[in-house]
């Protein structure tokens, strides 16, 4: 048994907090839910949960504590988090870590960690459950499947373990693939309309044979919008949402841009001048951005310019 599984078995039933990163996504929520069922305890997020994970939380009937007081707990297990800044004001003094992100800065300070740069934290939680020979019920299986599905971008990428564990979880939980996909299908007709309107009003530019599509979306679901445009055929889909307070931007890029032009989605966001005034996250094929200081139009223009430079040089 690995030392993390051993540590989890020791703190079972204690006063535990399972702490997600801020803007907790489905992998963080799914992993935290399964872990909370395994060892007992509360699930918390530093400030808020990502929009797309709300439906999962509802389906799992789970309670998520916002801004938990970490000193109220004997043990804190930090899930799916690579850096203390992602914990905002909820940085515990001592903690356990289970994570899969490259360049994890929390490992040094962790009491015990389970760290492996696989496709999702959810599959690491599955390892712990297996290690401790514990049963998996339908809800736990659904939670972990949701985490794997979203962190593999609906299996557009993913290591063999992600596929294998996903199958094992469907079987263990008596679930179908469709039931997991349903967690992420737009049930709301207004949201679907927003995606359709964004697609119909989108701007397309073809640079060096690549279709670059930018669009604004009227609902706060820019990730879904960007995914939809990408699936329609864009090589780069960039979708922005404007609220009174801030702008949100999401981008998907096709892997050929990574392979032939060494373009990484996250680097593109970080190196676009107007986007330095905001928060950026993501990886090679997907990136997100949020800021209260920049206009959406300027970001789109800047991104097209940077892409033009990178693709035509
Ligand atoms: Mn993750």
UniProtKB/TrEMBL annotation:
<dbReference type="Pfam" id="PF01368">
    <property type="entry name" value="DHH"/>
</dbReference>
<protein>
    <submittedName>
        <fullName>Phosphoesterase</fullName>
    </submittedName>
</protein>
<dbReference type="InterPro" id="IPR051319">
    <property type="entry name" value="Oligoribo/pAp-PDE_c-di-AMP_PDE"/>
</dbReference>
<dbReference type="InterPro" id="IPR038763">
    <property type="entry name" value="DHH_sf"/>
</dbReference>
<dbReference type="InterPro" id="IPR001667">
    <property type="entry name" value="DDH_dom"/>
</dbReference>
<feature type="domain" description="DDH">
    <location>
        <begin position="17"/>
        <end position="148"/>
    </location>
</feature>
